[in-house]
Amino acid sequence: MEETYLLNYPGVKKKILAGGKGPLPHFPLGTKVIFHFQTLLDNFERTVIDDSRLVGRPAEIFVGKMFKMEIWEPLLTSMRVGEVAEFWCDAVHTGLYPIVSKGMRLIAQGKDPLEGQKHMCGMGNLFHYHSTGFPELDEIMRNPQPLIFIMELLQVRDPLSYHRESWMMEKDEKLQTVPILHMQGNALVRQKQFREAASKYKEAVLLLKTVQSREMPGDVDYINLGRMIVPLELNYCQCMLELEEYYEVIEHTTELLEKHKGNFKATYQRARAHAALCNEDEARRDFATVEKLDPKFKPFVQKELKILGENIRKMHGSVPGTIQNGLKTPNLPE
């Protein structure tokens, strides 16, 4: 039996087409809502302009994360799991639908949903461009009008039940996640799972850089965040050394040394990477710096240079290529 009533939003009507299961779910901030939808014109033919089932994958939004079609959040949070409902929405709620639809269509085609957009609000992009590339969406842009959305609520996933992407986290949550990732990386290193450990360190670095990007350069918080990044970067580079990803090590340690001149571990890691690639001049220069930074490390440097010389001689007598640095020094994650 169909039930028609108004939501507590002007210009919205709801009609339940199929009842859902259980009580109305709880929707805290960050809840992932997974659903299928159809979008229809409010005409005699009820022309369908979008259908997620034809794409082969449901849509999803995250509660409280400023989805461009703001009206969809109250629509979906009025539903039970398994419910199918039809919503009539006045033109005041559908102005950004062409931009949203274009983005979802590009994603379905494996393209960048922001393709062709400038950095401005959704309405700004709508006015800046005269065409979305889809005639039916262009018509809605030219003539704002009511739309009908038929939605089926498939899943409601609590924020703690899935891996949250960094863009979904607040600042405090990012900072709380970093030491957890750091410890996970260290545990993976002890198990010699260097690829997996590197991924944990890299994720932690990205979280800190995201937080740092919102601070004023030179401020205390900005500087402290930079200091927190250093040991994670060094641990990442150590994993890359173990995985023989030498160019990656050189790139990251060089960037780190530009900001933190004289960092012993970064210099030593870069020296080892250059030595493994038989970049003789660069390796000798970095090893000399290592010895200056810590004279007690001279015996290790001499052994490294001896191995480097042997590898250079071998390289000249064989096919050029990468030669593994033969010395293994203790490098535990910080």
From TrEMBL:
Protein name, UniProt field: Aryl hydrocarbon receptor interacting protein like 2
- Name where it mostly resides: cytoplasm
Q: Where in the cell is it found?
A: Cytoplasm
Top-level taxon of the source organism: Eukaryota
What the entry lists under InterPro entries is as follows: AIP/AIPL1/TTC9 (IPR039663), PPIase_AIP (IPR056277), PPIase_dom_sf (IPR046357), TPR-like_helical_dom_sf (IPR011990), TPR_rpt (IPR019734)
Extract the GO molecular function terms from the UniProt entry. Answer: peptidyl-prolyl cis-trans isomerase activity
The answer to keyword Cytoplasm applying to this record is: yes
Q: Which UniProt keywords apply?
A: Cytoplasm, Repeat, TPR repeat
Please give the organism: Xiphophorus couchianus
- Cellular-component GO terms for this entry: cytoplasm
Asked if the keyword Cytoplasm belongs to this entry, the reply reads yes
Residue span(s) of domain AIP/AIPL N-terminal FKBP-type PPIase: 26-154
